[in-house]
Amino acid sequence: MLNEREIESCYLGQFIPVHYHHNMLMDQNRMHSFKAAIHYAVKPGMKVLELGGGTGVLSYFAAAKASKVYCVEFNPDMVKEARKFLAINQNGEKVEVIHADAFEYMPPEPVDVVICEMIHVAMLREKQVEVIESFKRRYLERFGGPLPVFLPEAVIMAAQPLQQEYDFEGFHAPIVQFQETQVIHSGTVEMAQPAVYSVIDFTQPNELQYKWEGKFVAERSGCVNAMRFVTKNILAVVAERNSTIDWLNHYMTLPLGTPVQVKAGDILEVSFQYRAGGSIPSLQASLRADVVYEAALHPTHRLPAYA
Fold first, then answer.
1. DSSP state of 42
2. What CATH homologous superfamily does 4-117 map to?
3. In angstroms, rounded to a whole number, what is the distance separating the alpha carbons of residues 116 and 126?
4. Whole-angstrom Cα distance, residue 245 to residue 35?
5. Domains of the chain: which residue ranges?
6. Cα–Cα distance, 203 to 189 (Å, whole number)
7. Run of H or E including 81
8. If you ran DSSP here, which 8-state letter would residue 299 be given?
């Protein structure tokens, strides 16, 4: 009999289909960024743990320098895939693929680096934050400090109002969309600058609830009918170069239940709340936007300075 968390995990994506993992292997931005971050973070002779190993590719990157890698995967199909792939790759013998629940597994010895890529835009669906927070508590109870280095080290999340086209050959359908970054999307108009609503630092304790209310200055007139959610993963901090190795998730665009007409200079107030690892509809249901200051009604007044 499955408990409540196990039922939620199955629903929210803990059993991601094998072909989706194959698609991740073909995502060059993801692969290059993680390879660079792991190459930087893992020093020769280190012990590494990967939580949610999938195909085993990140454990493979770690095995280039590590003396031992524990690769934990909950999905039995992916356990077979990872073992098969690692058996035909260099240093694969250093990786032990373990069929276990990341919420419960603890390595038999202290480790230096923990890799966890259960990342969805806005930290939804997958259990990245909850898994790491649970692991930190259990690790300190068993081994004491210090905690290992976590990869990613931090996550920056932002939101941005949009005017989004939802016409599909004449069929109007406001749907959730995932868009590539650094690409101009002809049906998307940015109505204001993005605002950061949360910074997750995995070296510190993190809450699982996000509740935010912020204001935007409309840069142009139009209809705000969607919010873009931006998730920037700080995979590794390169202190000696004063830089970071980052990976930016695809943008997630959620339609607003009630679109809002704005004019340039208006102040738009946006609010939402959701739980880390929760469903996309749970965020969408809480999403609100309202004009709280109309620039046209106060032509002689100086606008407030909102970030």
1. P
2. Vaccinia Virus protein VP39 (3.40.50.150)
3. 11
4. 10
5. 4-117, 154-297
6. 37
7. helix 76-87
8. T
The token pair that represents 110 in the structure block: 């202290």
| Helices 18-25, 76-87: inter-axial angle, 10-degree rounding | 40
> Is the distance from CB of 135 to CB of 102 less than 8 angstroms?
yes
Q: Which residue has the tokens 């934990």?
A: 72
Q: Which helix (H) or strand (E) holds 61?
A: helix 57-63
Q: CATH code for 154-297?
A: 2.70.160.11
Separation in Å, CA 172 to CA 74, 221, 223, 235, 256: 39, 22, 15, 39, 14
pTM for this prediction: 0.90
User: pLDDT tens, 112-146?
Assistant: 999 999 999 999 999 999 999 999 999 999 999 89
Task: Tell me the per-residue pLDDT of 171-200, one tens digit each, with 9 for 90 and over.
Answer: 999 999 999 998 889 999 999 999 999 999
Residues of the chain with pLDDT under 50: 1-13, 301, 303, 306-307
Peptide bond into 146 cis (omega under 30): yes
> 245 has which bridge partners?
236
What's the CA gap between 83 and 88, in Å, rounded? Answer: 9
Instruction: Answer positive or negative: Cα dihedral of 23, 25, 26, 32.
Output: positive
Residue 273's identity, in one-letter code, is Q
- Distance between alpha carbon 190 and the CA centroid of its chain, in Å? 22
**Residue position matching structure tokens 């969607």:** 226
- The dihedral through the CA atoms of 122, 127, 133, 139 has a sign that is negative
Task: Look at the chain and count its residues.
Answer: 307
* 178 token code pair: 């995932």
